[in-house]
User: Fold these one by one.
Assistant:
Number 1:
Amino acid sequence: MDFTEASMDALRQEGDALADATVAALFDRGEVGAFNTLMRHVSSSGAPLPDGLPDVAREYLQATSAPPAWVDWEEMERARLFFIDNNVHISTALSFASMPACYVVPHVAKLLSATHSLQYPSKRMAETGQFTVYLMRPDAFEAGSRFIPAVQKVRLLHASIRRHLRHDDNWDTERYGTPICQEDMIGGQMFFSLLVLDSLHRLGIHLSTEGARAYYYAWRVVGAMLGVDQEAVPESLDEARHFLDRYMIRHMGPSEEGAHLTRQLIDLYEEVVPGTFFDPIVSALIRHLVGDTCADWLRVPRTRWDTLVKAVPHLLGVLETIEDRSPLGAWALDRLGHLTAVLELSSLTRGRVMHYAIPEQLKREYGVSDAVPQAKRWIPPAATVSA
């Protein structure tokens, strides 16, 4: 697949027709409040839809109630096992690489600043973490799961943000394109898939080729369910590298919003780290994973830990050796990883289920199974040169 400036410019003008039409109808008919109230009771797939739900919402929920027909379930199971084997590392990559990567794209940082409070990045982190946990459960696509309703609500949330920013004159469409456009949705998919894999590689985590491909595939399925045009989505990791390189070259740079969001993210995680002595490791880990140029754009402070954090891959290598050679050690590390991820998510959500409601207005205050076989080790696709 060839990604050109023209093809990516075209993607900047496209939103999500189905979700956009649903949200427009709900607003035009004054039914957003009723929809949000009723949808708080719809948290698991297969549950009866509540009486009184607007017809347009009922039609949308029925049309989006199942994953794409083309899903390879064996590949999805490989992705789930890959996640189980690497859950704490994936959580680290999402927190310290994927989120800052969003902030290094100025128009994305501007959009995030306009749609949720700068003072509470924990909400977005909690939503992302909970969403990923739902995805990687064995019953994610079965009756009773929380994943499909979460996808349906996030898709409508994106559509409502597009509507608000267009109608409230808070967005320069000519300059930035459609809010949460197809190009940015695919870019986000790359941040949560390929960039996570890159970060695991940078941390020295042993990834099998099969596991890396499966993890990327799972996020392709997610993208399809979130309304991403599959005709434009990279199918392979090599194509994903080409897209991500071109996307970042087109858009990345410094911004006040990006620096502010990053500062709030650092503050959030420094609060989680016990005491103050280890606080600088948060900034050091972000800088290690996103690189000095992006870290400088985001004003990530340089610390005494910047050199020490480079030893993390060696430590993780020792732990992987224990895991590979000892079934008991593998079980213990898997349980530790699971508990760490659960505790991190619990601290962000404060034990609550995150609800993805349609905002009626935008305000700043709205603001263990068998492991994946360790066969051929995955090597990130080489960087591409943008034409």
Number 2:
Amino acid sequence: MRETHKGVLAMIAACTVWGLSGIYYKALSHIPPEQVLSHRAVWSFIFFALVLMLQGRLRELAAAFAERRNALLLVCATVMISLNWFIFIFSVQSGYATEASLGYYVFPLLSVLLGRLLFGERLATVQLVAVALAGLAVALLSFGLGAAPWIPLALAVSFSLYGVAKKQLLLGPVVSVTAEVLLLLPLALPLIWLTDGGGFLGGTRDAAMLAFSGLLTGLPLILFGYAARRVQLGTVGVLQYLNPTLQFLVAVLIFAEPFSPWHAASFVLIWSAVAVFSMSALRQERASRRAAMAATGVSAQIR
């Protein structure tokens, strides 16, 4: 099997885990979301610290905080990802998984816009159209519900700002995520032991499920990192939409959450935005591939 095919399979596996993770968090609805988040931080740290130890890279974790700029960016990234995790867990446990899936549809489009505004990245006309359609979808849902859909907005904004912080970090993905959950431990550990017996009063089942959150967090991130090194970014961007699609299907088909005509109209717009954005990304990928092949041919002729 070619490396590219392995990367695609790894990306599909990562997005499948993310997309179906709502089922896991729904099963923990009897445990407060701040408890679940605290356990997720602790067990994720244990998972990633073991990975770094096996790789002989634990020293890199201490070095991550050596530079003031890196340390500040890690704090910002930690605030954003913990907010994102908490809102997602809360939304699933509270019956708003449909809105959460909309947030993860909007996030890549918002990231493109932030890339243009903050880093001067080129934004094709069709990508602008996709961003406009996503904005229209959120506005339509706000009008239909009579209130701002804060869950999808908060999820999209927090994850996009997390990406902005990560883009500027001079660290590998495993080291940076380990540093982020390490920063959460001073809050997570007291909360675990001072509130409701640390979430373990439900018995062995709860204990096992909470511990499993470390693997549930760590494994897809490692699969994603494996895929990102082997697959073109345009393909990665398109495949990422498998995650919110599965979240949406779980919310509607398994959790039986209400799906009003306003939801339907908003999702039609967001899926149209995804289609436009995906076609643009794939077209750019093919163009860059052709340019690289042409450059290779010219180089060979010169030699």
Number 3:
Amino acid sequence: MNETFIPTSDYNKRKWYIIDCQDKRLGRVASLSIALLAGKHKSYYHPSLDTGDYVILINAECLTLDRDITKFHVFSPGRPGRSLKRLVNALPERIIEKCIFGMLPNGFPRKHLSKRLKVYQGSQHPHSAQNPIKLEELK
């Protein structure tokens, strides 16, 4: 008889990973971050349990986007001259967070996995006490 392995709380040791976004593509960083946040890189991954890790993204302003897209948002429709506003890509942290948040599955993971994502401009971050593991294999 086959027995399904379900990890217990002994397997719930969360690691911290750090990814440098210097000259990296947005989609590649986002897909790797989601796999780390969900714990899919672990051998004892189970979809019904949260076995993911923390992810720190540094140098967010140096991220490479495919193209410059001007985004517009309608704040108050029906008001001529004031309703259509152009959104400026001035906050690279928001761009990365919105991309990763949109790629997460609906329900419980979307709400809780996004809290373990830390995005910073520049190479300084306040999480050095957690001894993050630096990932270099991202192309």
